[in-house]
Amino acid sequence: MKRKAARFLQIAIPLGLGIFLTWYIYNRFSPEQLAEVKFYFAEADYLMVVLAVTLSILSHVIRAYRWNFMLEPLGYKPDLANNFMAVSVAYLMNIFIPKSGEVSRAVVLQKYEKVPFDKGFGTIISERVVDLLFLMGFTALALSLKFEELQSYLQENGLIDKAVLVLIILAFCSVVGFLTLRYIKGGILGKIVGFLSGLKDGLLSILKMKKKWNFVLQSCVIWALYLLSFYVSTKALDITASISWSTLVVTFVVGSFTFAFTNSGFGTYPAVVAGILFLFGVPETVGTAFGWIVWTANIASLVLFGLISLIVLPIYNRDRD
């Protein structure tokens, strides 16, 4: 019963947060502002949106291709089409049930390529370590590009002292947490230690990989496509088309973090993107329209390819041993 309740809350809380943010922003806008948002939706260059989505899908193909670099040392070389469809199903599942994509991806590979679940899942966790490292790198880049502007904003609004205090508290908690986990092996903390150990093993497995430089290159291409896709998306509206490179990178990075809070960024992505763009001089109505256009287009493509994959997988593998 407790497990079911926890699972329900895991789905309901992020979804509820997304719905609340959407409702809150909608009700904050005046009728004139809502009319502006609708205008920007109507005036958007959807050819640019389609091109951006195409680049995003291409990154998923490369992710499927890169997966084999991790599976081959384990003695498996799945079909690229099955890899891609497994990735597509994973993205689809994450939209409706947060954090379920990794499991479903490993299940698909086990069913159609006979890759043991634990081995397939282990490679996916290792992938996530790499993704986290790239996101951290982009975060550092974003902070360096906009450091002076962010510092000035914090000072003008009297927030810099609070920000420093928060950072100190976080650093202290991190040290205490690390020392605690270092000496506790049982219970829920033991599971956390095990999880962190798994992340370490995943990173080490990448370093020991025979084709690790190919893997690193493919990882760079994936993240370059993510950024390029976002860049092309900004060309859909005249106002966002002229934003600076530094603003683009910051918006891309902060927007990426929202996917951890609600179902694939539902509600949070458009709100956060609009907020960041507004901070750097883009009208809130423009940022809101842009955020929803980008999010809706990408989610629609994930749903489409995910559903197609669910249908095609059994047909494609019907005659395989």
From TrEMBL:
GO terms for cellular component: plasma membrane. InterPro entries: L-PG_synthase/AglD. It is found in: Cell membrane. Coiled coil: none annotated. Keywords: Cell membrane, Membrane, Transmembrane, Transmembrane helix. It is a multi-pass membrane protein. The chain crosses the membrane at residues 7-26, 46-65, 129-147, 159-181, 215-233, 239-261, 268-286, 292-316. This is TIGR00374 family protein. It comes from Aureitalea marina.
